Each structure stands twice: as structure tokens, then as C-alpha cells.
Amino acid sequence: MIRSQGDGDVRILTFDRPVARNALTEAGLDELEAAVRTAEEPVIYLHGAGSAFCAGADLDTVAGLDTEAAEAFARRGQRVARTLEETTSIVVAGIDGPARGGGLELALACDVRVATPDATLGEPGVTFGLFGAWGGTVRLPRILGEGDALEFALSGRVVDAETALRMGLVSRIEDDPRAVAEEIAANPADTLAVLKERLRDGSDRETKERLEAEAFAELVGTHGDEIAATREEDRE
């Protein structure tokens, strides 16, 4: 269900169940988690095969769950989303076609979300008495702000790429989102990892600023020759 292949400094992970719009079962979630945890490349590119990014949870699976199993399924999806968020690799979601429910929530856990002009995003579960529970109620307010997150989730509406860009659900619209992953991967891997760690840090301001300064100093020590070379180029 998850296809994984390396391409230089980019690990390409593909939701590979196009017949079901890449909807995820328990096994699919486990495969995705394992693929992210074992990736050694500085950048991960996550996208979907066929005409969709990911339709979220497989509803045939959900329909057969009792209350206890449903909670366990939600917890599994939350764990996978945290894995995407916490891995040291930079995770770029390339959203081409529909991203729905849990599929959108996994994209929200990625560091960068890039849509194609054909992308559509939504949390339509409310229309049939459900909602995505893979961390969406945590990340949506953080990304959109509480008011817009409430409107988006409560209405169940689906937005196109341009609207998603205006809302802040995605940061760019590109015909080829993978090019963004390659653009990021061209930068020093250690600097990418440090930037992600610092930008994701939820500590108090004083702690964050101290750690930022320490990380900056370490990178200056590591990349001194490159910094000097850049200064020489600027003088020419």
C-alpha cells in the first residue's frame, strides 16, 4: 500500500492504492510509519498514485470497528501523523487531486504542503456524522486559526488549490510538487534538520532563543569554509 524508493537525497513515499483513492487501512498506516522511520534521506516526498493524494481512512474498515477498535484506529493514525511531524527529515506533501479527512490530516503533519492546480482539500466526514481523528483538531487551529478551522471543519466543505493557498492549508501551487522537495534537498542536510527542530520547538521563548543561538553557533563551526566562499563570491 506504501511504495518507497530513494532518489538521491529524496525518499519518495507513494500512497499506492489508486483503486480506493489511496484510502488507508491499519496495514497501510503501519507501512507508512515504518517507511518514514527507516528513511535516511534528508527529505521525504509524500504523494499519491493515480488521481488522488489520499482519501483518508478506508471507510469499509471504519464501518466494521467497535468503539474500542475505533479508538485504537484513531490512535494509530495520530501516531503516524506524529511520526511525520517529528522525523528529522523534511517531509514535503505533494497534493495532486483529492486530500480528504485523514489524508488531509497526514498532509497537515508534513513540514511543507505543495498543491497542484488539480488539488482539492476537505474534511467532509461531518456530513455523514464523523470527523477525521488523526490529529486534525489539533493541527487545523494551529495552521488556520481557531475561527477558520471551525468553519472549515463544521461545514465539511471542499476547497480548491487556490482557496487552500489563501487559507494557508498549502504554501505553494506547482505543476510538479516534487521539484520543491528537490529544491529543499539541495541545501545542507544538517541545516535542514536544525531548522526543522527549531521551528517545531514548542518551548518557551527564552529557551527557544537560547537553543537557536547554540544551533547557529554549531552550524557556523561546521560550515565556516562555505560561508567564507560565499562572501568571496559576493565581493566579485
TrEMBL record:
Cited InterPro entries: ClpP/crotonase-like_dom_sf, Enoyl-CoA_hyd/isom_CS, Enoyl-CoA_hydra/iso
Stored CDD domains: crotonase-like (cd06558)
Gene Ontology molecular functions: catalytic activity
PROSITE patterns in the cross-refs: ENOYL_COA_HYDRATASE
One example of a Gene Ontology biological process annotation: fatty acid beta-oxidation
One family name in Pfam for this protein: ECH_1
SUPFAM superfamilies, A to Z: ClpP/crotonase (SSF52096)
Family matches, as PANTHER family: ENOYL-COA HYDRATASE, MITOCHONDRIAL, ENOYL-COA HYDRATASE-RELATED
Similarity comment: family membership: Belongs to the enoyl-CoA hydratase/isomerase family.
Name of the protein described by the UniProt record: Enoyl-CoA hydratase/isomerase family protein
